[in-house]
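Section 5: illustrative case.
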């Protein structure tokens, strides 16, 4: 091995093997199953939708219509663009969806927001869970974007792969399953004790 390759391997990618990994073709499926293991216990702890379930709605909530609107949006057209965008950022998700459905101009305005595009592209399961549980009225667009861009558990500081709908905070699986006080769900009677 030449010196340049050795430096590259040792400093840039310290875990890269200098030897080529060999495996039999019949081992391919077992390797893929192992590295892409789906934890069934996660399914019990989260709201999850299969990708085909939202395949048809993704274009309708993520893209504007191919034509633009000449119709004015009424009150919002009288506002400076910066103020209108600030209002959109401060709307809850349900109100944002309702505004987006009023006319083509409002739809274009909402669709032009980078944060909205990131939410519908990368947080569609979470978005649908909010809408279906009627919690979308409690979460602002910016709050949704912030929690989507956060990666640590708000309780223990480890990687938080989940979002608690009740506290609207990132949580790791351990904190959710071990019922950390901030992630615990109980009845009203239990909370009053």
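Designed sequence:
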């Amino acid at each position: 091995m030449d010196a340049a390759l050795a430096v590259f391997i040792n400093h840039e990618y310290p875990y890269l093997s200098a030897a080529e990994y060999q495996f039999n073709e019949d081992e391919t499926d077992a390797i893929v199953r192992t590295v892409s293991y789906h934890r069934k216990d996660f399914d019990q702890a989260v709201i999850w939708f299969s990708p085909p379930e939202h395949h048809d709605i993704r274009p309708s909530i993520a893209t504007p219509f191919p034509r633009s609107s000449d119709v004015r949006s009424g009150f919002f057209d009288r506002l400076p663009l910066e103020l209108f965008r600030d209002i959109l950022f401060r709307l809850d998700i349900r109100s944002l969806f309702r505004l987006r459905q009023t006319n083509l101009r409002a739809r274009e305005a909402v669709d032009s927001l980078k944060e909205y595009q990131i939410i519908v592209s990368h947080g569609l399961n979470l978005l649908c869970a909010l809408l279906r549980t009627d919690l979308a009225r409690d979460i602002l667009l910016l709050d949704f974007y912030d929690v989507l861009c956060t990666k640590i558990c708000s309780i223990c500081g480890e990687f938080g792969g989940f979002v608690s709908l009740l506290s609207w905070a990132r949580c790791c699986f351990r904190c959710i399953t071990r019922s950390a006080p901030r992630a615990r769900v109980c009845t009203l009677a239990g909370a009053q004790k």
